[in-house]
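Reply to dn_fold:

You asked what the input looked like. This is it:
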Amino acid sequence: MNLANPLATTNRGQADSSIKDKAIADKSAKPLRIAVLLGDAVNLDAHSALKLAQLESVQICTLDVDLSTTHEPTSFTTLLSQAVTAIEQGKLVELIFNDANQPQPLTQSLYLLDGLSAAKLRLHAHAFIAGFAAGNETTGGSNAVVENAAAVANAALAAAKRNPAQTVQHRRVANTLNEAFIALRQGVTAIAARTQAPLNGKEGENQQTGYWFSGQHQARVLCLNLVAKTSHQADESRNLNQSIVLTQGTQVIAPKALVDENRLFAPISGDNIDSLIAQLLQLVTLENGPGTLENSAGFHADFRAEQLKPWFERYDANAPLALVLMAASIDDLKLEAKAMLTALENDAIRHHGQHFKTPAGSCFTAKPLGDAGLTFVYPGVGTVYANMFNNLHEYFPALYHQLEREGDLSAMLQSSLIYAADVKTAANMSLSQQAISGVGASYLFTKLLTQVFNIKPKMALGYSMGEAAMWASLDVWQTPHAMINATENSDIFNHAISGELTAVRRAWQLADDEAIVWNSFVVRADSHEIKALLPEFPRAYLAITQGDTCVIAGCETSCKALLATLGKRGIAANRVTAMHTAPAMLVHGQVQDFYTQALKPEVLKPEALEPEALEPEVLKAAAQDLPIRFISAAQTAPVTVDSTSIGRAIADTFCSPLDFSALIQNATEQGARLFVEVGADRQTSTLIDKISHVHAGQSTANEATAAIACNAKGADAITSLLKCLAQLISHRVPLSLAPLIQPLSANAAPLSSAVSQQGEPQ
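and this is what came back:
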């Protein structure tokens, strides 16, 4: 039944002249907590739909109002007051409205019920209404209109008991109830999606379109400031200002589909190459007709993506061979299939194991490497970039929610710098800020690969400070998030080997007023050539050896002179860091202490556990060897997993020249075959390919290797991720396809499942 005629509001649709609606004036002692659930088929899961259907409900249906026959704006807050009354009587209120901005159906719903009742029913709200207010009186003066709008917003925030300083405010015109309901839905969606993009801010406001970061343990708060204009356009003082305060709920929005009409992904498995060819021919020769792949053209995105579902269902994870087709359209997919058919007839690919890969991401190898040598590679400092993977949260909202609960996600990624409006901000990050953000990016991608896609590495290594990211990301350190604040305030990163370079000043025995002009250069040269010249330039150092290039660092003048003597041109990095140079040895003890961290009990062997940790379940987990072997540049053998050994290995790597070529060769000799770069960009993948190519030419063992990156600067983050997954599939690495398959089904939202309310910010 209808709660009330939408226009049968107090004083014929006009709000009370006081700042607060009288309906909520007597509730000021306690803020409202009205649970709001998005009612569309994607976001309303089966459990919620069943529970809501069992409740006594009332409906509020809105229609656009012809303002030519209405002299005063309609009060949305007055109608909300009526809804509150029904909710207090234990009823469910359904708001029904039309939203032309949404795909079919145009009719949308929001469900409102008491927050406590929702919790008892185990219904997880997308947001909560915590307060609202309205008013249209002004006291005169040039700023009266602005002051009145601010007063209304402050009144709503006061009723909600929320701090304006921790609130995002969004203003928009809503002349009708339907427009107001659309604004409410967009606000709820913004909070549930953890992004301000749905608010559609005008030029100069609400330009944040990426992830909506909040302080740790702080709920997001949005104050929707709606303006309903009167028919007296010249008299803005008579406009109705209404503010609704929304707070964060316990349910995140359904994820966007990784596979859609513009991002097609089709895995095909078989016992042999002929089987793969037969399936490709089936795809290429599809005719237009009901139920065919090609016939999806012209239909809605979800329907088109649905046509790929049979290919996922036919895919056999245990088959010895597999290929993946990727394309941006159905027509392109058929072209990719034809290119794959040609490749499968190529002798080098069919019989000699040459890997085939197209720019679109389609790939195949007849000699898959498997997961026995699957190695996660963690990049070093300097790989992060402005706005890196800023749309990733749209596809993995539950993962971001989890990371937010575990620690300060904003600090972990250095979001204020990485996602700043000025892209130059990220380029000017300090060494400590780059280190934190780099580890944060690796941590995020590690959780994405291991928890969402269930990819389990057998080995791990890091490039330079990537070793620290390795231990932080792979569940070895007990409190990795504590390292953020420690790094921010570290004398090592801010002063000793960067900034003022106090360690360098000590090593060079300089007075405090003597300037140090430090730089590093990448040069294409053999390390032996450089080492032979170092005695002539005592303030220049060979910092890194990486394939066919090296990095020299030190006094800028000395480095340039060394390059001139070498007869080579160097590319200046313009980065101040003395890592991997002789002066860094002066802080070796400090670095070791810094990285000697407590470990999680489950990674320790029984003899290393404290007595209080000897619980049966802990012992059972610890009795087995850690399934990952950790390789360090500091030693040949894998690192023993204990606090002291880890701290020492990181310090040795940090303070000594880095031979990345030797590290990769050592890992290869220990069984590493498939290297997956886990972090921002793809710098180490390129290096590993070059190193492996040289090593293969020098070795008689003929060990095949491959390097894959899960991210690439300048490329779409999701496409890069899918290309990584496609190559892993072609190499027959076990992984979960559920995140790709489940969103193809109508009501499935695999990563949007409700989260526990325990520990949720209020």
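The chain has a mean pLDDT of 86.
Hope that clears it up.
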